[in-house]
Amino acid sequence: MSQSAGQEQSRSRLGVLLTGVLGGSLLALYAGAAPFITPALRKICLPFVPATSAQVDNVLRVLRARSGTLVDLGSGDGRIVIAAAKRGFKASGVELNPWLVWYSRYKAWREGVHHSTSFYISDLWKVSFAQYSNVVIFGVPQMMDQLELKLASELPTTAKVVACRFPFPTWVPEQTAGEGIDTVWVYDAKTFKSDLQCGLTRKAITEDEVTPHSHT
Prior knowledge:
This protein is an alpha/beta fold. Helix content is 49%, strand content 16%. Strands 3-2-1-4-5-7-6 form a 7-stranded mixed β-sheet. Helix 5 links the parallel strand 4 (134-138) and strand 5. It is globular, with a radius of gyration of 24 Å.
């Protein structure tokens, strides 16, 4: 093999190596940035901010007497779902970012709870929560009023909702735990569904009273 041919082959190998390194770097950059960029393109921003150990503990503490199905809305890296599965829940996570969903599935497998966990790449506004008896949400203030209506219309009366970081704007919590950013608020579906129905009834009565009626 001539010297020039050897140099050309070396350059070719170097090009392949650099391409691989660059591709891997871009992939890693996207994986790291996507949790922040992707939600920003949505109508309501729900960025990925990992739950603290205290927040996870508080969620499990207020749900210690509960069982059955649980869903974490905006499940991020899956830590709430995995912790709940270890406590006996049939736990699911709903997350827009596919990288976080795949990572969550890997973590669940590694920690031995993949049979009792499920992670879905989905928009929470397009998912029905009628099948869940426990809901955990790390929301932002801009979405909480809309989420109130969705959960109140879909959840069974036996459900409990745990809000982390930000409370719901009109619901009255039956219990709180923690303090500061680690505070969690617990809401009873029977109460907020009843409040919603009363509100709709009052609205219908008010509209009926202000609507002029024809007389024969």
